[in-house]
Specification:
Keywords: Membrane, Transmembrane, Transmembrane helix. Pfam families: TMEM164. InterPro entries: CHP02206_TP0381. The structure is a single chain. By secondary structure, this protein is an all-alpha fold. It has two domains: 153 residues, no CATH class; 76 residues, no CATH class. Helix 5 crosses helix 6. The radius of gyration is 18 Å and the shape is globular. It starts with 16 loop residues before the first helix and ends with a helix.
């Protein structure tokens, strides 16, 4: 139990067995969701309650861990990493049921795919932060599919525009917040790549790179939708 809540968090190795275990878990969950999509539709309310419960457990475990080790700080524990915000949006969506919120959840949740492929500072499942990682990023990825199977949610170009606008607000705010608190939200300080790049070019690379990616994904979904309408 001491190891499970250890403040000195172990980290998995990219390409190691723990990394492949995480990839297997998300692939297995995606497969199960597709196999049981009919049941997801039939038991929509129950599924949404399960999603809400898992999201609350994820945020509760993360909060409890940081408090227990005395590291609940502005720089570390706030839900300002983008996937943590998506988890909060998922909780909010249980009550609001709005398409625009589904759009934000989908586009911002795309970062979760990258986290599984290229995990940075991620603990194994033998640590509580490994459990919270799986819960958090699985919810980010699976929730839009749940909404597709239950209410017919489909990402759109308009949705990507909204995601870009909110990202244009989010990124400068966390950059300033990082400066004030010595934080590392959105990994703008301790970076996964381009370690030697100056701060401003790195900020702009993230902003324009992410924005273009959102817009391209939105265009792809719009074209798919139009092609289906034609046929």
């Amino acid at each position: 139990m001491d190891q499970f809540f250890n403040a000195a968090r172990p980290e998995i190795t990219i390409g190691g067995k723990d990394h492949f275990l995480y990839l297997f878990i998300i692939i297995a969950l995606l497969t199960l969701l597709f196999c049981y999509q009919r049941q997801v539709k039939i038991y929509e309310k129950t599924v949404m309650w399960i999603v809400l419960l898992l999201a609350l457990i994820q945020r509760g475990l993360s909060l409890a861990y940081f408090i227990s080790i005395g590291e609940y700080t502005l720089a570390e524990a706030l839900p300002l990493h983008i996937c943590r915000l998506v988890c909060l949006f998922i909780i909010l969506q249980f009550f609001l049921q709005k398409d625009w919120l589904d759009q934000i959840i989908f586009f911002w949740g795309l970062f979760a795919y990258a986290s599984f492929v290229y995990p940075v500072e991620i603990s194994p499942l033998t640590h509580v932060m490994g459990i919270t990682f799986v819960l958090l990023h699985s919810l980010n990825i699976l929730f839009p599919l749940v909404r597709y199977f239950t209410v017919g949610f489909v990402p759109s170009f308009r949705g990507s525009l909204l995601a870009v606008v909110l990202f244009a607000i989010y990124l400068p705010l966390v950059a300033v917040f990082n400066e004030l608190t010595d934080g590392n939200y959105f990994y703008l300080v301790e970076r996964p790549f381009f370690h030697n790049m100056a701060s401003l070019p790195y900020f702009l690379l993230n902003f324009f790179g992410v924005s273009i990616a959102f817009l391209m994904v939105g265009l792809v979904f719009d074209k798919i939708g139009k092609a289906r309408d034609i046929h």
